[in-house]
Amino acid sequence: MAEEEHRSAASAEDRSSSVRKETGVAHFFAAARYSLQGFLRLYEESAFRHELLAFAAGFVLFWLVGASFSEIVTYAVLMLLLFAVEALNTAIEELVDRVSPEISTVGRNAKDLGSFAVFCLILVNSIFAAAVIFF
Questions:
Q1: Is the pLDDT of residue 12 over 70?
Q2: pTM of the predicted structure, to 2 decimals
Q3: Cα angle for residues 99, 21, 38 (degrees, 5° grid)
Q4: Smallest Cα–Cα separation from 78: which of 110, 62, 55, 96?
Q5: Alpha helices, DSSP H only, in the chain?
Q6: Which of 103, 59, 65 lies closest to 79 in space, CA to CA?
Q7: How far, in Å, are 11, 16, 47, 73, 111 from residue 5 at the CA level?
Q8: How far apart are CA 91 and CA 87, in angstroms?
Q9: Any residues with CB less than 8 A from the CB of 122 and at least 6 apart, and which?
Q10: In this structure, what DSSP letter does residue 1 have?
Q11: Which phi and psi (to 5°) does residue 80 adopt?
């Protein structure tokens, strides 16, 4: 029994030592690569592609109505926040599908809550854009 525990601990140690952690400037580039991979994964989602189109259309509309610099910056920040929540929602969905591929109340609730968070930000962004464009 003790030998088995020792082997298990040794194999866990081997796995952890085989993963090389980047430091310094290399860490920055590794993090940038991971972020790009996340963006490319998120781009596979049609909802995210629609949000990107809305982002571009919003900038055009803001330019046409002569929105102020602060309104444009606020819009950009709100849209980036929406993209971040969309990414988290997609991550939740992927984890739920991986951990619990069968239909479950807990899994459904997790996905619904993530979807609601995205909806709230879409609503906030829409209200802000409407206020800038129409008022």
A1: no
A2: 0.80
A3: 50
A4: 55
A5: 2-18, 24-43, 46-64, 69-99, 105-134
A6: 59
A7: 10, 17, 47, 56, 38
A8: 6
A9: 51, 82
A10: -
A11: -65, -35
Give the per-residue pLDDT at 103. Answer: 86
Angle between the 24-43 and 46-64 helix axes, to the nearest 10 degrees? Answer: 100
Radius of gyration of the CA atoms of the chain, in A: 21
Three-class SS of residue 3?
A: helix
**86 and 48 in contact (C-beta within 8 Å)?**
yes
Find all residues with CB under 8 Å of 96, minimum gap 6, and list them. 107, 110, 111
Catalytic positions are: 86
Tokens of 92: 């939740």
pLDDT in the model for residue 118: 98
Q: Are 83 and 51 in contact (CB under 8 A)?
A: yes
> pLDDT tens digit string along 69-101?
999 999 999 999 999 999 999 999 999 999 988
* Surface-to-core class of residue 89, CB atoms within 10 Å of its CB (0-12 exposed, 13-18 middle, 19+ buried): buried
Q: At residue 31, what is the residue type?
A: A
**Separation between Cα atoms, residue 90 and residue 51, nearest integer Å:** 14
